[in-house]
């Protein structure tokens, strides 16, 4: 195989022709083959997506071909329009299997059927009659017997609307498996007086493959078929060791032990995985195959000889969802909507299928179907002379139903927005006539300027001023005309500024105080659910209307410097005193001699004296020196930060807790704050949804997409005084 070919099938199941690429299931193939050969009836069951179809077609079929069995793969057509019964479909599959087609579509005769007893009816034979009335011969004139594999048998319970059709099938299956002559044949022989010598024993095998969650349904139907309860084979997920065997055998020289382990880590979502723990780790084979297929496509695109660690790290953890969403973007929304409506069951738990011609008649183009088929989103199977379309694999159900739900939510939302737009327009007119309740811009600009704290000297003549607080909802609304913290407003695109303003005023009047509190909406609550782009518009508009400060986002370096202002020496001395007093109280309750207690108390008294000593203070720390702490302003998070344990799942009023040494509030917790690193938008500081780790000063900043608005992100202003003699930038 050349380096420019991709050996991975992705989500497609392995067929007989793919047997040379099918690895990792040697033990299961050996056991299942033994069960099938030594038992007439076998049930294969396992979880969805475990590879039942693949092990049968690529694992079992090549082995049974070496015997006197010939494989017959059956997928039943359950459409109500289908006039063919299930037994007729199976009989046609047997006939077609003897006239197999090779990979080029050419007919490849592997045997023929010899009729030894004339059928009672020319229209339709039962399974029992067909197998007892015919013999099967190979092209070399040896007797052969059918191995009937009815795959995805759960569909008979999911898709069959005709209960009588299903009942008749199970009765015929019971006659065959119990080797009981059907009543219609017995009656015919009695009435006609004919004598027919049907063979006492016929050689055939039946394998029924289905999802394990349908075993109970099968039990209800096969209570009259004891043999279907005897021989059952459970197929479960592969482990990490089997995954390694698959990757190394298919990938060959393109992978190493290191890259193989990295692939398995990515698929298993276990970064701490080692060679020793592989055997205890379950791997979803479809995700492994899809991941490797995508990886090989990348390798080929980059003209790489081998798979590199860099290539592996380019993929996110949501492999299936990313794959599905990327491919469906290549077809029209109408096509996606139609297929997601008709290829999923109503509850989204199972795959369904539709005829090819029905999809075409609905407006889907052949090019779109071919594209989705080539990218393994859908597959086309021929059943009972009808081409049918279905999703390639069960693992696509989850992203498909999520996309369908997103579309339905958007549809409902835009209905609401349409109504809201009318109300918003009315609200905007009223606001213009009656005046805004957000306050004047002039007053807000003056208020923001007052909140700029004392100058912070960053060195190199870089003196900055930081806002005491995060920007409030009232301040943002006064400048921009709307409050993005009202989620309904945040969902409206920036292009519809008038609608944002109208809905903002409407919701402000509409919501009760209790509802506002629950939704973290209020004048003195920090503005949140605001994107970096919206915050940047706020800053630009603010700069156009004031002549005192030039506002901007702080850089990461500036933000950290201001946040690490810490605590003053006076406050630290107070905390030391409190700690020492606690030690004295503990000693007093301890069971030690009075002399030792006096020694301890004397030592602590000396420490207090030393702390108060003016010479010690001057030689160590100036009175206004700031001490770096774990959190901005204290080593004790409860003193300075609104975080997951004290936030009650909502944004707090500004300045609810203590400031740091620079007088800045909420630098740790409450909201992540926008800042800049190399002119790129970042967030820093932790939020009301964060744990202690993310609120610490040692925690680094993280990149955020400029257009994304989140519930726990806001911003604080940095200001630089404007030189009156210099023109504004």
Describe this structure in words.
- With 729 residues, this protein is an alpha+beta fold.
- Residues 433-438 and 614-625 have low confidence and may be disordered.
- α1 crosses α2, α9 crosses α10 and α17 packs across α21 (497-510).
- Strands 1, 2, 5, 6, 7, 8 and 9 form a seven-stranded mixed beta sheet that branches.
CA radius of gyration: 37 Å
The overall pLDDT, averaged over residues, is 84
Principal-axes geometry comes out as elongated
CATH level-3 fold name of the domain at 39-234 = Rossmann fold
Unreliable segments of 5+ consecutive residues: 433-438, 614-625
- CATH level 1 name of the domain at 39-234: Alpha Beta
* CATH A-level architecture of the domain at 39-234: 3-Layer(aba) Sandwich
Range of strand content: 5-15%
What class would the helix/strand composition place it in? alpha+beta
Q: Terminal Cα separation, in Å?
A: 63 Å
Tally the beta strands.
24
Give the helix proportion (percent range).
40-55%
DSSP summary: helix tally: 29
Largest sheet: 7 strands, mixed
